[in-house]
């Protein structure tokens, strides 16, 4: 459920007309609904009620400071994957004890930064990383709390680019080697092993892979405890998928997901962490674009928008589908159209949809890409020297620019020409 609905023939974000925002900030822009973000966070929090738990929002889905602060102020933890995200979490007021640090390539500088600023745990992914972290911690006179990420070799049944839990993926250590790796971690002076971490992929629309992975983690917990490790925390990752179109079946809800967690690991008495990103932010955001031209091609019409692949790369990168709806609601019975929906970037990959049946629109009209809140703005670039797309947050009847569109001067001034040219 989200808060982008038609009201009197106009698309609204909560109580603000999307067209009003467009008139103020221009297009394209991302627009988030605070009510949807907080609702989604709460669903996960409630799904784990009664268990000792922390929902750590995976910031890479949408990491604007305003979004991080909104969720952080509700008590959310943060899952960060870089020093930059760590700095954002801290700048948004999230205390270190609610921040977990994931990722296969943490540098020593990033480790130091997190140990200095405070960290709940590092989710370490390899032996070389463990050794480096131990050295960094020792040099600081600290001990780094860690979980070890295991790769359970489970097929997440999602797009290959976002599957992370098969043995051929770069993530985690093979679960078959877990006992040896935990033994080494426990022997490293700078580390304090607190638990196990797993994350099998993103946009999972079926609970079965989660059930398989978590069952393996439960079994491993008992084995490692028998080996003498004090396994007291399980980080179960993120990955629950969202409906990207109203015409498909609905993925499982956070409550169903919580039930799987309870069934598979609930008996272990561990503190549970989850790291949802997409489900929190995905349907809490839209990308609003203006129609520049409708161009007739051979056997097809191109709908040319002022948004492009640099603003929303998911269709080009993951063959992702986003519903595209007009901001002015079509009159009942109005005739639709079929378009190839494209942006102005000079690449054929700059195609949002092919042969899409949708409302007929005209130059100057506004359209909204639904489900664009996660892995949207964070993946945007300035390819083709297009200014980075701005972000807007709506709460009730108010809205604010939470990242402004850079001016062309600001863009140019980031470059410098050496004096010897
Ligand atoms: C990307 C990622 C997540 C979030 O995944 P979603 O599909 O957005 O829920 C959580 N944990 C880790 C380690 C990740 O890399």
TrEMBL record:
CDD domains: PLPDE_III_DapDC. Pfam families: Orn_Arg_deC_N (PF02784), Orn_DAP_Arg_deC (PF00278). Transmembrane segments: none annotated. GO terms for biological process: lysine biosynthetic process via diaminopimelate. Residues 36-281 form the Orn/DAP/Arg decarboxylase 2 N-terminal domain. Homodimer. Specifically catalyzes the decarboxylation of meso-diaminopimelate (meso-DAP) to L-lysine. This is Diaminopimelate decarboxylase. It comes from Aquicoccus porphyridii.
